[in-house]
Known about the structure:
This protein is of the alpha+beta class and about 160 residues long. The chain is built from 4 helices and 5 strands; from the N terminus they run αβααβββαβ. The chain has helices at about 1-10, 30-45, 60-65, 125-150; strands at about 25, 70-75, 80-90, 100-110, 155.
Amino acid sequence: MLFLCVACNGCNMFGAGTLGGFQEWSFPVSRELFDKEISNLYKDNPEYIIPEKWQYLDSWEANGYGSLDGKIFHFKSQPEELYYVSYWETKHDFLGDPDRKYTEIAVRAFHTGKGGWETVDYFKKNKAGKNRINTRFYNEIVSKLEKKLNLTSKKENYWYEIFE
């Protein structure tokens, strides 16, 4: 059993990592190209930039999460909230193309302006809340990135989700 856990962890089968994460989406592009399109998304949608009133919440790097290279998206419409998002490059070599690069993205935490940042664990008994965040993230961010990149992302599913 220990071997299985180590093997799966080495293959990135546990998803978003330390903070956990909401639904992951995979794009068949390099991280470099994806990063460029994230910058363009902010440029085309300045409402996603964290407002000054919540700048103090952007302390991820100071708190030891700088390696995640996360981004914060602000949603002004109700419910007003922030999503802390990270993305990372992987190779899905089990699909038969060992050189194909993918970039996966997921919400890691959210903030409503009250209290602290909350992770997916906050929704252990509230699937509707988790689905709301996943849907909003897809509609507001993922779908716009798909249009910018002129491709369709893949909703990632993992074996352990059957136990959730």
